[in-house]
Amino acid sequence: MFLDILKQTVDFFFLFLIIFFSLKILTFSSRIVNIFKGLMYFLLIFFISDLLQLHFMMIFFTRLFENWIILLAVTFTPEIRMILERVGRSYATNKKINVEKVGKDYIVEELIKTVEYLSKRRIGALIAIERNESLEDFVREATPYRIRVSSEVLQTIFIPSTPVHDGAVIIRGEKILCARAVLPNCKNEEDLPPKVGTRHRAALGLSEQTDALVIAVSEETGNISVSLNAKLDYGITRESLRLYLDKYIITKVNKE
Q1: What's the N-to-C CA distance of the chain in angstroms?
Q2: What is the DSSP annotation of 84-110?
Q3: Contact of 218 with 126, CB cutoff 8 Å
Q4: Least confident span in 116-130, 158-172, 184-198, 226-240
Q5: Are residues 113 and 236 in the same domain?
Q6: Within its chain, how far is the Cα of 26 from the centroid?
Q7: pLDDT level of residue 243 (50, 70, 90 thresholds)
Q8: From CA 63, how far away is CA 204, in angstroms rounded?
Q9: Alpha helices, H only, the chain
Q10: pLDDT in tens, 15-60
């Protein structure tokens, strides 16, 4: 009996490790880390119960281990859904248009000018830059623009008196695809600094579900933040923003 339970426990533990590291790589979710810690405590209680031969606890654990697949599915439902969404977007039929290398400097400068202008005046903004995974799902319900990126256009969009200032701008390549896009709310609020608003939650939410780079400007403080790979870098400098854009804006590879 003890040997069977031990085998099941080891079996469950190794399977959990594989799933944990796979999800960690794919979603960068701190929630998984917390779940992992919780399950370690759970297993510790099991071993103590077995050592002391606690009858009712061992009945509970036996029934639980018999249904460990259901337990995993329930525990990781949000992460499984997130992975499926990312896979779906990665294989979307939408053809992504990336920035030509010669035009990348122009895009970076226009974005920095925009963010600096809005930050100094404490005008809230949310700008999502599409990378490898399609953002078409969020573009469909937004207000279309299809215009070349420029600081003047972006600044105008986010002026509070305009009808499209609320929501996100989505950029693909050298084009502003849309304004007033609704982005998903974040799932890991413990990753957020205190007192951040809906823009930062939306920025983190999109970076949890896609590989987009999202810039957020706070209307309360003027702070500039960047969200990427389910992490929010809050209150960054102009130089840090440039480093993010230089590194993560996708460019075409010119074959000679």
Answers
A1: 67
A2: HHHHHHHT-SPPP-PBPHHHHHHHHHH
A3: no
A4: 184-198
A5: yes
A6: 10
A7: very high
A8: 38
A9: 2-27, 30-52, 55-66, 68-75, 77-90, 101-120, 136-139, 151-158, 198-209, 238-248
A10: 766 666 665 555 445 555 566 667 777 778 878 877 887 777 778 7
Q: Total structural domains in the chain?
A: 2
**Do 111 and 145 have their domain in common?**
yes
Token pair in block for residue 100: 């030509």
- Two tokens, residue 233: 């870098």
Q: Which of 36, 57, 90 is the last residue of a domain?
A: 90
Asked if the model's pLDDT at residue 79 lies above 60, the reply is no
Q: Rounded to an integer, what distance in angstroms lies between the CA atom of residue 188 and that of residue 165?
A: 26
Closest by CA to 128, choosing from 240, 228, 243, is 228
Helix (H, G, I), strand (E, B) or coil at 45: helix
List the structure tokens of 148: 């070349």
Cα angle 138, 133, 210; round to 5: 70
Question: What integer pLDDT is reported at residue 227 of this predicted model?
Answer: 94
Q: Which is higher by pLDDT, 98 or 38? A: 38
Chosen domain end from 59, 90, 121:
90
pTM (2 d.p.) = 0.65
Of 135, 204, 210, which is closest to residue 175 (Cα–Cα)? 135
Residues 124 and 232 grouped into a single domain: yes
Q: For position 49, what pLDDT does the model report? A: 78
Partners of 123 in the beta sheet? none
Find the mean pLDDT for residues 199-221: 92
| Contact of 117 with 215, CB cutoff 8 Å | no
Place of tokens 């804006």: 249
